[in-house]
Amino acid sequence: MKLPRIGQTLRLSLVHASEERNGQTFKTRVADLTEEHIVIELPISEATGRTGPFPAGTECNVWYIGDDGSRYEFRTVINGRQSENIPVLLIRKPEKTAVKRTQRRSYLRINTAVEIAVKTTDPVRRYHFLTRTINLSGGGISFTCEASYQLQVKDRLQVWMALPGKNGQVQHAYGVVEIVRCNPAEEKGLHQWISGKFVQISEADRAKIVRACYERQLDWRKKGVLD
């Protein structure tokens, strides 16, 4: 299995956490890689926004989203702390065989309104329009659009997505979607509902979508929207 790269976002939880930190997820980033260690920035609690003590010997579970859109996990231990340019932690680099892929092609689907631009590939029915998603995952999307667009099952659509991220940053992703279901408008003047799966998408763009879905879900949990 592929180890995380420099700049990779990681999330970790403590194996033997105190009552105060039990159940908390900490977000960090890979600052450097050495022969024995993964060097990470000080982890920040996604519940409180604060860091905390991470003494040597602390065991933790680490997970991240790979470039293929899959989720990977491994268990490790904090071996120490350094404070050169910025304070960092040294966590033991796992053997590649110890990194487990825990999700593959089973993508988290969330209900979210993401701005998208859609263009048909059909040479006769040439449509190009803007809309918003109803739900989104690394495997596909659903959206609504005007009933005047004569879309059909198995049609292929080019889709450009503007994915909201942390601190108001927007990442862009592109994919080709094959329509698997068309639900007509229930009444005149209402929109039809289109659902499709990605049949062409780069793994880097799929990873952007997967990360956006997980970050949106974590944000909802912090706000108490999800259990």
Automatic annotation (TrEMBL):
PilZ domain sequence ranges: 103-214
Domain spans labelled Type III secretion system flagellar brake protein YcgR PilZN: 6-94
InterPro entries, per the entry: PilZ_domain, T3SS_YcgR_PilZN
Domain of life of the source: Bacteria
Positions in coiled-coil regions: none
TM region(s), chain numbering: none
Protein's name according to its UniProt entry: Glycosyltransferase
Species this chain originates from: Brevibacillus aydinogluensis
